[in-house]
Design a protein that fits this description.
Number of helices: 7
Largest sheet: 5 strands, parallel
Helix content: 25-40%
Mean pLDDT: 94
Order of helices and strands: EEEHEEHEHHHEHEHE
Strand content: 25-35%
Strand order of the largest sheet: 6-7-8-3-9
Shape: globular
């Protein structure tokens, strides 16, 4: 089982931003979370990654109870998961330094080469295009060798070539054994790629 969610509620301030009675999906291909803007797709991804604490319910991911769980258990789980957001944040320094940030004795070059971004290693992230930033963010995820990769609308703001590359990368990662869950609003290429779909109202 990739994940199972029961009676999930996420409240921010006075607003309930996500409710989900029950969903269970197997780990046998890319999973797409779809729905209109504001449906809670990004929030659900963050919950699955242990990055947001729900207001109620039960969440199990990769055989681990993420909620309810102790903070220590969630911290241990988060080492197995990486989430790439629509607008990735980078730190000061070069692309190579960002890719291996907070890691020791890790060579960033293989991950950058895998995503076609080795030539960007000495650049500053602020000087990258949107597509280049997406590639570097994915390289940053790859060096951590996650069991689960969460992608928030991975083709948004990309040109045709960049979007096609993202689709190919999702296929490659999934076939290599990485569990991949991505959100999607209206990209038919991503819809065709998904082995399973969870649609939020």
């Amino acid at each position: 089982m990739l994940f199972e969610v029961r009676d999930l509620r996420v409240v921010r301030g006075q607003d309930c931003v996500l409710t989900l009675g029950h969903a269970a999906l197997e780990k046998d291909g890319p999973v797409m979370i779809s729905g209109p803007n504001g449906a809670g797709k990004s929030t659900l991804l963050a919950v699955l990654g242990g990055l947001i604490t729900p207001s109620g319910g039960r969440v199990q991911v990769l055989g681990t109870c993420v909620w309810p769980a102790s903070e220590a258990a969630r911290l241990a789980f988060r080492r197995r998961v990486v989430m790439c957001e629509t607008e990735p944040l980078f730190f000061r320094g070069t692309v190579a330094q960002n890719v291996v940030y907070a890691l020791s004795d890790v060579d960033p070059r293989p991950a950058l080469e895998a995503v076609g971004a080795l030539h960007l290693a000495e650049r500053r992230p602020a000087r990258l295009s949107t597509g280049e930033r997406r590639r570097v963010d994915l390289a940053r995820a790859l060096v951590r060798k996650p069991e689960l990769l969460l992608l928030d609308e991975p083709t948004s703001h990309l040109d045709e070539q960049g979007a096609a590359w993202v689709v190919e990368e999702i296929e490659r990662l999934s076939s290599s054994g990485t569990a991949v869950v991505f959100s999607n609003h209206a990209d038919d290429r991503l819809s065709a790629l998904a082995a399973h779909q969870l649609r939020l109202p």
